[in-house]
Amino acid sequence: MQLTNRSKVIAKKEMSFMERLYIPAILGGLAITIKHLFKKKVSLRYPEVTRAFAPVYRGMHVLKRDELGRENCTACGLCAVACPAEAITMDAAERKSGEENLYREEKYAAKYEINMLRCIFCGLCEEACPKDAIYLTDRIVPSEYKRNSFIYGKDILVEKVDERIDVSKRKNEYSILN
Amino acid sequence: MPKVTIDGKTIEVADGTTILQAARMLGKEVAPPAMCFYTNLKTSGGYCRTCLVKVSKGSDKDPRPMPKLVASCRTPIMDGMEVQNNTSPEVIDARKGVVEFLLINHPLDCPVCDQAGECHLQDLSYENGSAKTRTEFERRTFNKIEIGNKIQLHMTRCILCYRCVKVAEQITDGRVHGVINRGDHSEISTYIEEVIDNDFSGNVIDVCPVGALTDKTFRFKSRVWFTKPMSAHRTCDKCSGKVTLWYQGDEVLRTTGRKDQWGEVEEFICNTCRFDKKLTSDWTIEGPTIVDKHSVISANHYEGMIIPNELTLNDIKKLPLLEKNTDGNTEF
Ligand code: SF4
Ligand code: SF4
Ligand code: SF4
Ligand code: SF4
Ligand code: FES
User: Fold this and answer.
1) From the CB of B162, is ligand 4 less than 6 Å away?
2) Using CA positions, which residue lies closest to atom 5 of ligand 2?
3) Cis (ω within 30 of 0) for the bond into A47?
4) Domains assigned to chain B
């Protein structure tokens, strides 16, 4: 019975002598292999050589600080509600007097965790953030031995005061879009 | 009984009903927003002007239109009255202006504010406001006031709707806070920051449409959309004991009165129920509160959301948006 009209009837005809020798087919295969030896290589010798990233590359997150070194994030939870992978969790705390140089707003994230195993690097957290706090960068999330090590806390995510991470390219990308 | 037509829909209502109440009976599509009117509070309404509507025909006896837009929460209907709400560009424009005025001094620090996600001003400005601000001067700010150890007043966010004052007047005995000063300088204040120790004082939190009066026991604990509301009750000798518990995991983070679809509490609850009973064992759980599927609260995979009925092709054809072309077929 014919199920669709796309099926083809295959004729099973006897192979000729030349075909049964297999040598022309083997030579044809070798020719393809040898041709590739002289082509430009598509792979890189990572990690000695790295590929240049597109400015829109979405890699490991960074939690930004402002010009005065205060954390931007106010634990508003918008990134977590926007995250389709439910990778982000946080706990808020109230800024005490004397901590104004640490946190920009009166509320801050006491705990902020991203589960890098869940994250799909979609960048929606970055888009949701009203405080310019979270950005995806061109850094790669390294491999780990334990699943627990993929839960990144503030110690990894927040940029160091003296080692700022440049996200101006991503900001530019947004300004082109808007 | 007098008849009133709002946005083309006609309804018969009892004498003395206001336009706003009649519109609410007709449903969400025609009801104007309200920031200061509160059904359970006498003499509320008339302060914020968000509920402005156009009366295009005064009544059957006197069909002249009203000269200006009127506050629907304070205007009783007349027989044969015709009202335009969302169908009048004038009303839409005026409402946009009102929102701009309400926001002139508002900090809009929603990322920090505990009210975000259930804030009427957020909804209002999202639906009716403009995305830009045209003013440059400094917004007025106030220091936070602790009203007792459970309630916090952050006047910076107040829109002076007077609801909390009405609650204090009508539900508690002997109110100790009110509005002082005038015009741009008006502020809600307590009498020398006196502690309100009244069994029902906590209701000012529920009636406040913005994040000016908030629950200190919930302060910065979570965000509304990470909590799951459950209807629950307990036997209470002071109030009805019917509340909504806001859970995060197994923990009750906050207790509020039950709110209806207009965001108004059905029954005021006492402070014992609100602040002191935070264990599941204190309550009889009735089940998840139904949350509007457009609310951000339902964004956190909230199971109780209503799933819309599936449309059949016939239903789709009846939708007003689709125009019929000349040979009677629906064009998609
Ligand atoms: S990039 Fe996407 S998946 Fe990853 S944390 Fe942000 S929102 Fe979640
Ligand atoms: S990173 Fe941005 S969106 Fe996420 S909690 Fe912090 S301020 Fe809010
Ligand atoms: S009161 Fe409403 S609009 Fe104002 S900051 Fe709070 S959530 Fe935002
Ligand atoms: S504190 Fe809240 S309820 Fe009281 S007047 Fe201000 S906005 Fe209205
Ligand atoms: S709700 Fe009518 S004036 Fe405020």
Assistant:
1) yes
2) A75
3) yes
4) 3-100 (3.10.20.740), 110-220 (3.30.70.20), 221-332 (no CATH)
